[in-house]
């Protein structure tokens, strides 16, 4: 009796809640992966440098190409007149196909995540295979999950409703990072391995349960005229068929690319999104550095780690405020307002000039002056205001990037109409957007590090100012300030080696933040720049 009530209650859940829960099962895995996979292979498995660079290089290429590849394999039948699809393919059939794909690929993503934390092959080979497998399944899950946003909902209001729950569950999934600190131990890896097994088990079972529930709700939409679970969210009630035009025959990849080249709104969007992705990842990669320069003399390491974790959760929570604004004013009006707000902050910095050390913190590339050089307390406006502005800059940028998936959904609809398709190729278009914007993700840490080196006049590592003490007003030598440090580690620090390797503790109070900051770079170029430190 109790089981029947539970099943009835779950079947009565809104589609938006079930769809959003999929973001939870992705987030609890991916945040832990990003934070620990480098440290695990370098510090625990002792991977050699050459194998690490080979793995990162192959991963960089694979990560750039798999989005359009999987999108094409998934949606190419929607671009042609395949016999099984015909001219009367219903939207429900497409949604069910994507839900079934998520039901398979989600548990496989959890298994590939689990493969990182158990040594089963030589470290170099395991690193390469695990990265490619995990990123491949993550791409498949992300593509189908984003495509469902366009396929489940037809109006901007309903899509915003779906995205709201995605942000809510993504924020909840980010809490796995806080829990991981209690289990992470390089010397005794068994507890962290058990924690990862629990995460993978929960994620895999969650994918199976959520996709089955979503499939039942979609199937029920065709059997009842009222179908309350889906009528509000996606308009999938009844047997409404997609309006395809003439039979266009098979479409090759070259023909599809030519169609995209004539899609002016798509071209304008990917150009803008490239800049946004660059800015978003620039903030993500360099935020720990900003945090260290602003507050390292005023907060403990544990508080710094807490603030670093909060900085990754806050954009999801802030998005919960942006999305209701989108329902009220429209997505484009909100995105335009965020752009204007960021522009206003930039103009404020420009008008303030270089003689305002506090406001210079707003200018990311010149963010090099520690608060100890200002001789000001933490509560002083010159310290507090830049902290808030810097956090606001990160939140506004992250918020804009998360809202842009709604714009891609509109581009999917426009592509359907302009090219007279029988079915919207949602996953393929999301994959093509990712292909064009991935360079922004890659070049953000490269250009940011170059800018820091250019403005400080120092080499890589030393130029970022992580371990420089010239601005400190503490008495005594560097060794006196930092306490007893083993000789090899201090020599590395003196030479500015912030990643050399992560197994060595950095002799600064913010060293752990600095190490995590450099580990967030997924480019072998960044790691190879520290050759002299090995």
UniProtKB/TrEMBL annotation:
Keywords in alphabetical order: Membrane, Transmembrane, Transmembrane helix
Compartments reported by the entry: Membrane
GO CC, any one term: membrane
Pfam families: MFS_2
Transmembrane segments: 12-38, 95-117, 123-141, 162-184, 190-214, 266-287, 299-317, 329-352
InterPro entries named among the record's database cross-references: MFS_trans_sf, TMEM180
Topology in the lipid bilayer: Multi-pass membrane protein
UniProt keyword Signal, yes or no: no
Major location (coarse): membrane
Protein name per its UniProtKB record: Major facilitator superfamily domain containing 13A
Gene designation: MFSD13A
């Amino acid at each position: 009796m109790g089981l029947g009530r539970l099943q009835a209650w779950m079947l009565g859940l809104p589609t938006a809640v079930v769809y959003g829960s999929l973001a939870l099962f992705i987030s609890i895995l991916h945040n832990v992966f990003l934070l620990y996979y480098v440290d695990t292979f370098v510090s625990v498995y002792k991977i050699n440098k050459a194998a690490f660079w080979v793995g990162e290089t192959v991963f960089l290429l694979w990560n750039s190409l798999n989005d359009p590849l999987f999108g094409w394999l998934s949606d190419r039948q929607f671009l042609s007149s395949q016999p099984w699809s015909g001219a009367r393919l219903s939207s429900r059939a497409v949604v069910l196909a994507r839900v079934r794909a998520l039901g398979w690929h989600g548990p496989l993503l959890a298994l590939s995540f689990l493969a990182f934390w158990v040594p089963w092959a030589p470290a170099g080979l395991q690193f390469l295979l695990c990265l490619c497998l995990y990123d491949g399944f993550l791409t498949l899950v992300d593509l189908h999950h984003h495509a469902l946003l366009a396929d489940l909902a037809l109006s901007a209001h309903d899509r915003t409703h779906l995205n709201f729950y995605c942000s809510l569950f993504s924020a909840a999934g980010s809490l796995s990072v806080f829990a991981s600190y209690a289990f992470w131990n390089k010397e005794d890896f068994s507890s962290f391995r058990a924690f990862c097994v629990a995460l993978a088990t929960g994620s895999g079972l969650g994918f199976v349960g959520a996709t089955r529930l979503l499939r039942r709700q979609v199937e029920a939409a065709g059997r009842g005229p009222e179908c309350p679970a889906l009528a509000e969210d996606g308009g999938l009630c009844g047997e409404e068929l997609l309006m395809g035009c003439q039979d266009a025959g098979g479409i090759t990849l070259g023909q599809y690319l030519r169609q995209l080249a004539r899609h002016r709104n798509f071209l304008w969007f990917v150009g803008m999104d490239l800049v946004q992705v660059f800015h978003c990842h620039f903030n993500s990669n360099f935020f720990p550095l900003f945090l260290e320069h602003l507050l390292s003399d005023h907060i403990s390491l544990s508080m710094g780690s807490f603030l670093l974790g909060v900085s990754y959760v806050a954009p999801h929570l802030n998005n919960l405020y942006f999305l209701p604004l989108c329902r009220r004013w429209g997505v484009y009006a909100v995105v335009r307002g965020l752009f204007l707000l960021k522009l206003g902050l930039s103009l404020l910095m420009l008008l303030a000039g270089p003689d305002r050390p506090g406001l210079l913190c707003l200018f990311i590339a010149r963010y090099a002056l520690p608060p100890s050089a200002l001789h000001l307390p933490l509560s002083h406006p010159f310290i507090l205001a830049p902290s808030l502005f810097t956090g606001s800059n990160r939140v506004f940028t992250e918020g804009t990037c998360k809202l842009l998936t709604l714009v891609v959904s509109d581009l999917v609809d426009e592509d359907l109409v302009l090219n007279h398709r029988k079915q919207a190729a949602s996953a393929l278009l999301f994959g093509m957007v990712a292909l064009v914007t991935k360079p922004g993700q890659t070049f953000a840490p490269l250009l940011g590090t170059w800018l820091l080196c250019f403005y400080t006049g120092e080499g890589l590592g030393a130029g970022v100012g992580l371990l420089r003490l010239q601005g400190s007003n503490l008495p005594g030598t560097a060794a006196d300030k930092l306490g007893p440090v083993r000789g090899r580690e201090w020599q590395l620090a003196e030479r500015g080696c912030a990643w050399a390797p992560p197994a060595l503790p950095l002799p600064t109070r913010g060293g752990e933040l600095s190490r995590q900051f450099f580990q967030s770079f997924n480019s072998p170029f960044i790691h190879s720049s520290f050759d002299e430190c090995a």
